[in-house]
Amino acid sequence: MSVPIDLPRWADTVLVPAVSVVAAFLVAGLVVLGIGENPLTATRLLLQGSLGSGEGLGFTLFYMTDFIFVGLAVAVAYHAGLFNIGGEGQATLAGLGIALTVNNLSFLPGFLLAPLGILGAAAFGAAWAAVPGYLQAKRGSHIVITTIMFNWLASVLIVYLLVNVLREPQSMNPETREFPLQSHIPFMHEVFAAFGIDIPPSQLNLTLLLALAACVAVWLLIYRSRLGYAIRVVGSSPTAAIYAGISPARVIIIAMVISGALAGGLAVNELMGYQHRLLLEFTAGYGFVGIAVALMGRAHPAGIVLASLLFGILYQGGAELAFEQPAITRDMIIVIGGIIILFAGALDGLFRRLVARLLPRPALARA
Amino acid sequence: MDVTSFITILDSALRLSIPLLAACLAGLWSERAGVVDIGLEGKMLVAAFAAAAAAHAFDSAWIGLFAGLGASVAFALVHGFASISQRGNQIVSGVAINMLAAGLTAIVGNAWYGQGGRTPPLEGEQRFGDAILGHSALVFFALLAVPLTAFVLGRTRSGLRLRAVGENPAAVDTAGISVTGLRYAAVIIGGVLCGLAGTYLSVAQSAGFLPNMTAGKGFIALAALIFAKWRAWPALGACFLFGLLDAISIRLQGIVLPGIGEVPVQAIQALPYLMTVILLAGVIGRATPPRASGIPYVKER
């Protein structure tokens, strides 16, 4: 137990997360059994609802877009040895950034306004993450606690602004007016229709492409750039970083800025792509699911895409399931997310030992 | 403002600070032994649900209390297993506890009662009444926990050992005392106190469980813990201060103060979080956590 377990690379990156996810689903199945429903029926309904129709698939990919952004946000900070659990707050502020940008510059044409809105999201998300980053780097305040506090500060701030400042005077709902039409990110079915292809309408919009581009960019950043190298060095050993002439404080702040900007992508997908206005609680706990996504995806962009797809299936399928079997509400997904975080994150060592015991000796010897 | 409304505010501040206090002391025990606990919120939530469900089923607030303590301790043991036995990441485990609690209470509540996750309203024997001096027994349990915590951690042998585990576990281990045992003990005491906090919410303060009824109280308790610099008596002060802020913000809703105008409720709600960030930044004093908190203990090194 004291010796670090050496696993072959494929087992470490694929098998261990897979085993912990399967275990998480078994436990979730027990919960379903416990409330008197059939887990197999539930699984069938879940898959049918998420992948069984073009419309369902569209919604699955829409949710996947959300999770890619929050997963990448957690992952980038994670590589720098930081635990950013402030994705909720950063995405909330990013939503504010979008609303302020597009509603104040509504005279601009769409090809300028939409990118500016995205930049607004990234800038506000980054700024909200930069403060905890700065406090961690320069004042030594623990990033976990400050990002938690910043989540609550963000939620209090957004309630105040939407109720007292940004709300339309004649409207009762705490939300801004609709974003100018030219700033809306086109729905995927509209884009396909422009080329004469008919796909079923859903919330899925072009932000998906932005998310996939962000995956490539993060991969290049972390594994192929000087800055990414510095981030990984600081993450594995701050003292070695100092010895190598890297300033951990600088890298920590930069990593948090990138992380916050990525979390802003959630607001882009939800608000510019679908809701088309700023409203309360649009982040819906996705920031925390991002932790599960990043842990499951081993903080690697490819893993994050797969984990996001899984959670997309869960969210969309879960909505359909809640419709068919009212006893199983969408809170089931929160439970599954929690179990995955527990298994793939906190109990990682347990599953690594389990896999090491299951593997034949030669495979271990080769590692 | 006249004397009666002043007393009313103090009274409601006390009521509002009790769950904060119990949860804050729970965090204190756990973190003083070197186990970081950001799952206070989750444990309070499961306790609130289990307590309300049991109190309703057995027509007894006391059985509710024991169910609440049991549920909270069970979750504390999961956290303990992950962070002590498996040496997992304590923050990750805490996040998992919070998510599990939020999801499970909503799902099970909905499956059992079909009222959108609420438990049926509690009445009579199913609730803790305001028995002594206009407050329920749980209020006094929580208040009593303050001198107890201060005494045990400050004046007794096991308390000193427990604090040593949070500062320098290797030294404790060398002295032949079980680090694992002490940390589990601390985590279980934390579970009991979180259970008290949760039970108070659903069975004494309110009459039944509502989905997500902790609404961030576990995190305010965490803020109070930092504010109190991980000490018991200051924890009482910090929790009462945050409870007072809460009471004032409820009181000030829609009231126009002369010279200031209407104070936005959110400004007062933001204060605990803001003050914690400022304190952690070292602008006013320093808050240094126990030295070994958050670090799993590996015997062989």
Anisotropy-based shape of chain B: globular
**Largest interface, Cβ cutoff 8 Å:** A-B, 48 and 50 residues
CATH topology of chain A: ABC transporter involved in vitamin B12 uptake, BtuC
Number of helices of chain A: 16
- Give the helices and strands of chain B as they follow along the chain: HHHHHHHHHHEEH
Organism (chain B): Microvirga brassicacearum
Transmembrane segments (chain B): 6-28, 64-84, 91-112, 132-153, 184-203, 209-228, 235-257, 263-284
Main location (chain B): membrane
Membrane topology (chain B): Multi-pass membrane protein
What does this protein structure show overall?
The complex is a heterodimer of chains A (367) and B (301). Chain A has 367 residues and is an all-alpha fold. Chain A has a single domain, classed as ABC transporter involved in vitamin B12 uptake, BtuC (Orthogonal Bundle), CATH 1.10.3470. In chain A, 75% of the residues lie in helices and 0% in strands. The two termini of chain A are 18 Å apart. Chain B is mostly helical and 301 residues long. Chain B has one domain: Orthogonal Bundle (ABC transporter involved in vitamin B12 uptake, BtuC). Chain B contains 11 helices and 2 strands. The interface between A and B is large, with 48 and 50 residues. Chain A: It comes from Microvirga brassicacearum. Chain A: This is ABC transporter permease. Chain A: GO terms for molecular function: transmembrane transporter activity. Chain A: One of its GO terms (cellular component) is plasma membrane. Chain A: Keywords: Cell membrane, Membrane, Transmembrane, Transmembrane helix. Chain B: Pfam families: BPD_transp_2 (PF02653).
